[in-house]
Amino acid sequence: MPSSPSSWRPSSPPSKERIQALVDWAFYGGWYDYRRVINGVSRGLNQALDVTQLVEVLVNGVNATMQLRDAALFLAESDGSLTLRGSVGFKEEITSAQVKGDGTLVRFLRSNAEPIETPRLRQALEDDLSAEERALLACDEVRLWLPLVSKEELQGVLLLGARLADELFDAEDHRILGTLAQQAALAAENVRLVEELRHRLAESEEAHQRLLCGREEERKRLARELHDRVVQDLIRLCHQLGTCQGLWKGSPVNERLEATRGEMLRLLDELRRICNDLRPPTLDVFGLDSAIRSHVEAFSTQWSGTIDLDLAKHDKDLPEEVAISLFRVCQEALANVARHAEATRVQIRLSLSLDEVELSIQDDGQGFVVPSRLGLFAKDGRFGLLGMEEQIELVGGRLQVISQSGEGTEIKTQVPLAISRATCSGLAHTQPKVMR
Ligand SMILES: Nc1ncnc2c1ncn2[C@@H]1O[C@H](COP(=O)(O)OP(=O)(O)OP(=O)(O)O)[C@@H](O)[C@H]1O
Ligand SMILES: [Mg+2]
What we know:
Elements: H1 16-28, H2 34-47, H3 51-66, E1 71-76, E2 82-88, H4 92-95, H5 104-111, E3 116-117, H6 118-124, H7 131-137, E4 144-150, E5 153-160, H8 171-247, H9 252-278, H10 281-286, H11 288-300, E6 306-311, E7 318-319, H12 320-341, E8 345-352, E9 356-363, H13 375-378, H14 384-394, E10 398-403, E11 409-416, H15 417-425, E12 433-434
Parallel strand pairs: 6-8
Antiparallel strand pairs: 1-2, 1-5, 3-4, 4-5, 7-12, 8-9, 9-11, 10-11
Helix pairs in contact: 2-3, 2-8, 8-9, 11-12, 12-14
Bound molecules: adenosine-5'-triphosphate and magnesium ion (MG).
């Protein structure tokens, strides 16, 4: 692009290029080299991946290159209506304009994908305009309309105001702008698709996060229901059976009652274990370190190795969702040790600083080759490590799996406390703290 006279500095010796640039600017107003203009704007359009970049190239770029007083970009929404996405210069009437997707103006611009001057557009659309369309067309500051049409769909429209030097748009300008509009339409379509994709990704990410948060809530609710109803009812029935046994002392019925009571007590233990798995009560009452300690105790009854605990004492309260996520990591990591590691020793470390909590579970087992993404395990129906990662990411933390064949495995998680509070409070509505 030729430079404007403002870049001219008389104090430095004028180079040949600078003199040429000044001449170009003075004679052609910066719009003289068709190919250079198109190439420059095309490059910008090719790189535009969001609306801000598109506005920068089409509104600010074209406005500056063509030396216009004003420019505005309207982009099509999914219902075809046009919304203003960026403008320079224009007054209020433009910036507050709303154009319906099924209206005469949009239909006309879609089927006439050529730059068109305002008087001609007014002539063509005399009748059948809505009040908003009429108001937009009545705006005298708008001199030229550039419909951006791709695949027979109106992707947007670029409105150009008068040139600073008040020259009219000539046939060459129309030709250049027509070519530019075709490229801009493709870029606008791409930006719309990328925006849609981003929006869908964000939506599915949020739905997934809600699902994860909801799963924990559901487990908690189930544990409470089981404990408060089924377990309590079973305890009551056991008492009643005990009373009956007293009445049938010495009778063979008593033996049957005893066997039934034994069976019920076994069932009670099993239910308590399920409740504990669903929601370890120690976590809510005594905090994460106690919950890990009691889980390790239960785990040690089924696993013969040694478990070293280094669970830092702390006075700080952890957000509930962080505590439960770290607990789930510990549960799954120990389950993996028992199933896969062939380890003899495990070390569990929990440390907490002012702004971060860190948990590490390290075994001295056979290790494994960690894939580039834990999601790759999912296609073989292995979800443990991936689930841990998702759970930790949900509270804004990071999970690392450090392992090599023959070198043992370490699962390391770090959760920044400020972020985790912000992240989950937007998702789960009840956020009582787990106090220590
Ligand atoms: N501590 C470990 N030591 C050795 N290999 C491990 C260890 N932890 C995980 N692995 C390996 O990583 C794989 C994936 O673990 P992941 O927990 O995701 O799935 P899984 O345990 O096989 O199944 P599940 O979905 O029931 O958890 C395991 O199959 C195992 O090969
Ligand atoms: Mg597993």
